[in-house]
């Protein structure tokens, strides 16, 4: 996808979907530790969250564990408390994953 296609998608479409196979930081086959969430039963231990996902068009849904969520990402984000500098200029926000290596 080039810049013109991206600009067109942003202007005309509601969302983009990106599918990408990821590997743990430690390398292929390394363990990951999905987050746990409180159970509906107050006495039960925390549990993983599973959801049915269609991996391929036309195929049956597959149960997948939730590895990350909007809520957990929000916990890592620091809100910008002062959106404008005293000289009237705007602050720039750079997300770590947008910096080319």
Entry summary:
With 101 residues, the chain is of the alpha+beta class. Helices cover 17% and strands 8% of the residues. The C terminus is likely disordered.
Question: How far apart lie the N and C ends?
Answer: 20 Å
Q: What is Rg? A: 19 Å
Q: What shape does the CA trace take?
A: extended
Q: What's the arrangement of strands in the largest beta sheet?
A: 1-2
- Average of the residue pLDDT scores: 75
Classification by helices and strands: alpha+beta
The largest β sheet comes out as: 2 strands, antiparallel
> How many individual helices?
2
Low-confidence stretches: 93-101
**Pattern of helices and strands:** HEEH
Number of strands: 2
Share of residues in helices: 10-25%
Q: Strand content of the residues, in percent?
A: 5-15%
Question: Which properties best describe this structure?
Answer:
extended; 101 residues; alpha+beta
